[in-house]
Design goal:
The complex is a heterodimer of chains A (145) and B (314).
Chain A: H1 3-7, H2 10-29, E1 31-32, E2 35-36, E3 47-54, E4 60-61, E5 66-71, H3 92-104, E6 113-123, E7 131-144
Antiparallel strand pairs in A: 1-2, 3-4, 3-6, 5-7, 6-7
Chain B: H1 18-45, H2 53-58, H3 61-79, H4 84-105, H5 114-132, H6 139-164, H7 171-181, H8 189-199, H9 201-216, H10 225-246, H11 252-262, H12 265-270, H13 282-313
Helix pairs in contact in B: 1-3, 1-4, 1-5, 1-11, 3-4, 4-5, 5-6, 6-9, 7-8, 7-9, 8-9, 10-11
Classes of the chains: A alpha+beta (145), B mainly alpha (314).
Amino acid sequence: MDRRGLWGDPRRVVSALAMAGYVGIAFAVHNLYPFSVFDMYSRAQTSASRVVVRDGAGQMAEVERYDRWRCDGAIDLSPARCGVPGSFSYTPYIDASRIGYIAAHETGDAAGQPVDVVRRIWWLDAPGAPRTTDCVLQRCTAVRR
Amino acid sequence: MHGGAAVTAGAQDGESRRLLRLALAGVAAVDAVLLAVTAHGLSAEATLHGSRPLAQLLASAPVVVVIAGVALVALASFARGRAPIVTGLVAIAALGTLESTQASLFAGHQRVFFATGATLAGWLFGLAFERRMGRRGETLAEAGAVAGLAATYVDSGLSKLTTAGWLWADANTLRSAVLTNHPVDDTSPLASYARLVVENDAVAHGLAAATLVIQLGAVVYVLGPRLRMLWGALLLAFHVNVALVTQDIFYFQACILLLAFSFPWGRLARARAAPSPPAFAPEQTRAVALRLGGWVAAAAGAAWLVRGVIAVGR
């Protein structure tokens, strides 16, 4: 490429500098607005988990399907509660949002039905439908919406 | 190719970027409001994340209103083209404060807000480049914005490769992402699609491989209008598919920006031919590129140096 070709279209020069600069800075700072490496789902996984509700009949539901929560105590999200830390995958901000919802919809009465707040873990150790285990995080009462 | 005397008129290729500027400012304004509202809401809950006095203070009603107000006023000025570099930088600073506050209260960053910031930063870089060349148009601002937006996808692809390697494209990582996000009690037709992805290795593997190709291939988004349209459509399809299969992840800001920047809406409306490339003097381009490129390299180098110092300190 001759000199004029390299510098002839400044749009490409700007694009190259902007992209290289963004990538270079992002990989240094990881997450500092407006730079991010977007590594939310970058790790290879062999499991998944999600904090959900299990009713008396064993049916699973999202926490938002219930209202007027009352739990026996704080809900412990630490992974050690459900096995060896690192043995399963979890996403802290999603877990925190589940518990945040419950905390925001607490009530003092006990009018609801008994439910378990569980961490459902899917084990992706074989093709096809994954194997599941449920780890009880807290026993609560809540009213189905 | 584009030699000759410098052009000092407005838009060098006859295209107005006003609508792009308005779209960018509008999406950023929505981000400012959403970040302020969610940060304040999280502060009010103040339950699970322990004591974070600075974040609590920044998310308190009077302070968060001031920060969001600064962002909105700056974005309004940016949208109108008034001191766009200064007002754009002020908007980025305010948005960054809101984002950091929210992340501190939310147990992590929500990357959905970063696409706007990356695009805005790219716009400002291109605009600064253009001003350095003594021009008043926004041709290079658009080029910078497009590069900033594309860089977010390239970053995501590179993160996958540097963290998991090509193993990321095996079926399990995508299956895990779907299970982590998809509601367990979903009975809609979309549940069948999610189940298909989770229980069929070939489908999951194919979608994971396509994800890597589309994200890493976003480099070509900056190479010209046809490739931008093609890759913009692919990136939009990627976002829509993610939204359908997870029901929880939708980067609507990125989708709006992709819609705005990928397709020649103004030209289509006026049935105009593609504009000719702008005429810039190569010598001047080279001089400005070396100067601004040096600043970018210095910023990246400083960021890596700080990162290294922090790592050693630990």
